[in-house]
Amino acid sequence: MEQTKLTIKIATEPEEMDQIYKLNYETFVEEIPQHKQNRNRSLIDKFDKENTYIVAKEAGEVIGMIAVRANRPFSLDYKLKNIDQYLPKGAKPCEVRLLSVKKEYRKTRVFFRLVNSLVSYCLENNYNMALISGTDRQIRLYKRIGFEPFGPMVGSEEAMFQPMYLTKEKFETTSKAFEKMMMQKKGVAKRLNFLPGPVPLHEDVEQAFKQVAISHRSSDFVDEMKEVRTKLCSLVNAKEAQIVVGTGTLANDLVAAQIKKLPGKGLVVANGEFGYRLIDHATRFKLDFYTIEKQWNEKVSMEEMERFLEMHNDVSWVWIVHCETSTGYLFDLEKTQALTKRHNVKLCVDACSSVGVVSVDFKDVYLASTVSGKGLGSYPGLAIVFHQEPIVPDRQIPRYLDLGQYALADSTPYTHSSNLISALHEAVKRVDLEHRYTLANAFKQMLTSAGFVVFGDEEYSPGIITISLPPFISSKDMGNKLKEKGIIISYESDYLVKRNWVQFALMGNITSHEVETACTILQQTIAVKVEQV
């Protein structure tokens, strides 16, 4: 049961102390038989006057606690003689005791919230080591957060304890919980988003989205829709742009529905996840087509495509992915357009991960798809299709997939979201390709200098940084570690897990400082993993 109104604080009120004594009794008399029972069902610790109690409260109820004290002798001094002989040189310890969370809250984040506050307290008071008598029932838990056993077990047959200590260094490197908390203390105050979607948004884009929704039939909406489409066309040198409520997958289905009207056969080129998805789109629409299928990240040369078109005179259209998101590979769009124009073939382009990231010119592109939520830096939810030739409705195409319906109704044949359009409008104003290249070049330099294997040269997008990890480091484990530290990257897709890759997408509103922070944390995290191998 995850709680939503949890308060973590240092206990100061009498009623809080009374509840602490009750919880102390429940845990260390009834659950762990360390002390004798009494009628009051209350247990006051012998060091109560010296303890600082950190408590977790919900709706006024104390549901968890940790006690901290630094005065010697510790309670552990009475159980194990000459403790200092076991401790590292220069140790300045405090003792952590009476760690308890009510049973019904033990599978929530209460424990971690308590530890977070404990870390703050230790740092503020310059302690570099915490000692604990870990109950033998929870030794694995203590080890997971970095505690190291020392000395023999202590206690009685009914309640055995393992002396353990946790250093500041372990706070930072070993414990998942402490790593996250320590990074918060070091200034990583927010999650840094390096996903290709949803992307980090500029505050002005967020504000535009929060405007009061208006009717998609109102003149204000019609005017803004027209202005957004005009700016999009100007950005990519297209004559027309249709905006549809949906995703990139829908945009490609809209393209496939138009391709089906063309005579002759087609050619679909694939060298990554999204190229192979185009093959799936074409197959589902029962298009008649050939394929050039490459290994992932294998380059596709213009010479190879030229030879194919020379050998197959029946090809009337070609469909490619401009930026292969799964690797960052970037097709040479200018040369591809020249090639298809020379062979009188219509070129269709999946540009979902390139518009707003790199300079694109769709002058000789028949159809191109993109989305609102990647390089354009807005919310996901809008599919965009660019076209150079007029398109009319076709009753053989399902209504929602009939691009002619959108062209006929100025992109609004059906219900639209004024919030998404307003946000996209604001985002398009902020597209800065030069900034994207500067970020990518700096990031790649930092990564290669640190010894990482980074895909790509000038033929790769500055919006997708793909890193191949060594086989002894799991990409999934690395992604999880970075997530705990507030760095959100692409790593969970099956195609990334299979190849042991992680990806940083430089799309949306990302600063140089955020890139530097991410690189530093990545280096620190992988250094720890290498040491553990």
Rg to the nearest angstrom? 30 Å
What name goes with the CATH superfamily of the largest domain?
Type I PLP-dependent aspartate aminotransferase-like (Major domain)
> Which descriptor suits the 3D outline?
elongated
CATH level-two architecture of the largest domain: 3-Layer(aba) Sandwich
Report the CATH C-level class of the largest domain. Answer: Alpha Beta
Percent range of helical residues:
25-40%
Assess the beta-strand content as a share of residues: 15-25%
Termini separation? 36 Å
| Average pLDDT rating | 90
In CATH, the topology of the largest domain is named: Aspartate Aminotransferase, domain 2
Tally of individual helices:
18
Main beta sheet, described? Answer: 8 strands, mixed
Low-pLDDT ranges: 175-179, 185-189
Q: In total, how many domains does the architecture comprise?
A: 3
Structural class: alpha/beta
Number of strands: 22
Features:
alpha/beta, 20% strand, 533 residues, Aspartate Aminotransferase, domain 2, Aminopeptidase, 8-stranded mixed β-sheet, 18 helices, Aspartate Aminotransferase, domain 1, 7-stranded mixed β-sheet
